[in-house]
């Protein structure tokens, strides 16, 4: 993003500094679902699997993300709103991605505060009427998007079937050695989801299950790190698994985080020494020529889990239409046992693969 997200450059403008994540952060819900001014980066991330009510298929994977990007500490007027949305048609094996970015003002986009039910809104991408919207309905999240260029839209409503989970220690996740290399991080790992989805002018009433991540902080990557691999897996036995690996240039992970959520909602932080994630296949993007991992074994022997994570199809790369926005892979996956038995579904995100793809965070 041509320095737009460079923390040191932005901070030096006023001499102020960004707020940083801390282990004693005083969480307060629902207030913490809204924006946190003064932190450099924040995002609301939704992924899920949905299908039509009245048909055995089609089955879709989807992504909806709102980013708040601060340019000058403690100056809301310089925040950016960036939106990403994608739909993966798991039968046709087609993937569509749309994005937008606006500087916050009353005409283009806003992050709002309680008691307003709207968390964030923006105009739709250029050439599309209407808005992208994220709101809290008192019990869950509702969001909508439309992108005429890619002939896609959805309007979805969610309610948690499990309580909110704080990752790490009190929602504090370390990501490097530096003082700022951490984030506040929580999730709803199972959200009952209903609404509508439209592709090429055809609209389905849909239902399914989603996952929501919320992070905020002021540094996601330290100098030797180039990106991360993130897994959100919803198992058929009712357990949910989050894994987060931050990678160096040579592909090795130097920071790892993980959480296993039981069917009753109880969460267990996973020690790095008690698990392994190994790539077993690769795929080269025809669009960017980036080479991505494309199949994994996940072993958690203490928890009795030996999993194979397999993409529904390879080409689920998000390639931005906005200059200087790095491409990344965000795709729907199946979870199998080692003998091929279906064990669940999920999503995987892969950043920092290919040329000029390091997230500027």
Structure, briefly:
The protein is 2% helix and 54% strand. It is mainly β and 361 residues long.
Report on this model:
By secondary structure, the protein is mostly beta strands. The chain has one domain (7-350): AttH-like domain (AttH-like fold). It has one helix spanning 7-12; strands at 41-52, 59-69, 80-89, 94-103, 109-111, 118-123, 131-136, 141-147, 152-160, 165-166, 172-174, 182-199, 202-219, 225-235, 240-248, 253-261, 267-269, 276-284, 291-300, 305-311, 317-318, 328-337, 342-350. Strands 1, 2, 3, 4, 5, 6, 7, 8, 9, 10, 11, 12 and 13 form a 13-stranded antiparallel beta sheet that branches. Strands 14, 15, 16, 17, 18, 19, 20, 21, 22 and 23 form a ten-stranded antiparallel beta sheet that branches. The chain is globular.
Main beta-sheet strand count, sense and barrel state: 13 strands, antiparallel
* Superfamily (CATH H level) name: AttH-like domain
| SSE order | HEEEEEEEEEEEEEEEEEEEEEEE
What is the CATH third-level topology name? Answer: AttH-like fold
**Radius of gyration, rounded?**
19 Å
Overall mean pLDDT stands at 92
Shape: globular
Spans of at least 5 consecutive residues whose pLDDT stays below 50 are 1-15
Question: Mind telling me which CATH architecture this is?
Answer: Beta Barrel
Number of strand elements: 23
Question: Tally the helices: what do you get?
Answer: 1
Q: Name the structural class.
A: mainly beta
- Helical proportion, percent range: under 10%
Count of domains: 1
Compute the separation of the termini in Å.
Answer: 10 Å
| Portion in strands | over 45%
Name of the CATH class? Mainly Beta
């Amino acid at each position: 993003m041509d320095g737009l997200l460079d923390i040191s450059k932005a901070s030096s403008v006023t001499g102020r500094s960004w707020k940083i994540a801390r282990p004693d952060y005083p969480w307060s819900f629902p207030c913490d679902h809204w924006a946190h001014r003064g932190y450099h980066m924040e995002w609301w991330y939704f992924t899920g699997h949905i299908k039509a009510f009245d048909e055995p298929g089609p089955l879709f994977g989807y992504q909806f993300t709102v980013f708040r990007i601060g340019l000058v500490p403690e100056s809301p007027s310089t925040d950016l709103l960036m939106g990403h949305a994608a739909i993966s048609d798991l039968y046709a094996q087609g993937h569509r991605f749309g994005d937008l970015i606006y500087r916050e003002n009353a005409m283009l986009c806003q992050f709002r505060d309680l008691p307003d039910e709207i968390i964030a809104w923006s105009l739709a991408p250029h050439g599309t009427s209407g808005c992208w919207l994220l709101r809290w309905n008192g019990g869950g999240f509702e969001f909508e998007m439309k992108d005429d260029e890619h002939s896609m839209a959805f309007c979805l409503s969610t309610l948690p079937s499990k309580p909110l989970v704080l990752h790490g220690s009190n929602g504090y996740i370390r990501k490097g050695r530096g003082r700022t290399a951490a984030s506040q991080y929580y999730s709803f790992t199972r959200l009952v989801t209903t609404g509508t989805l439209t592709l090429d002018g055809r609209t389905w009433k849909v239902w399914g299950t989603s996952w929501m991540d919320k992070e905020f902080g002021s540094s996601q990557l330290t100098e030797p790190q180039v990106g991360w691999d993130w897994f959100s897996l919803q198992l058929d036995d009712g357990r949910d698994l989050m894994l987060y690996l931050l990678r160096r240039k040579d592909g090795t992970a130097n920071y790892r985080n993980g959480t296993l959520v039981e069917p009753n909602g109880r969460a267990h932080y996973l020690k790095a020494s008690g698990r392994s994630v190994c790539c077993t296949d690769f795929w080269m993007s025809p669009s960017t020529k980036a080479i991505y991992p494309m199949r994994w074994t996940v072993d958690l022997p203490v928890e009795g889990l030996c999993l194979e994570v397999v993409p529904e199809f390879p080409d689920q790369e998000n390639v931005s239409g906005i200059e200087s926005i790095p491409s990344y892979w965000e795709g729907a996956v199946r979870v199998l046992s080692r003998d091929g038995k279906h064990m669940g579904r999920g999503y995987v995100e892969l950043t920092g693969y290919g040329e000029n793809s390091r997230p500027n965070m």
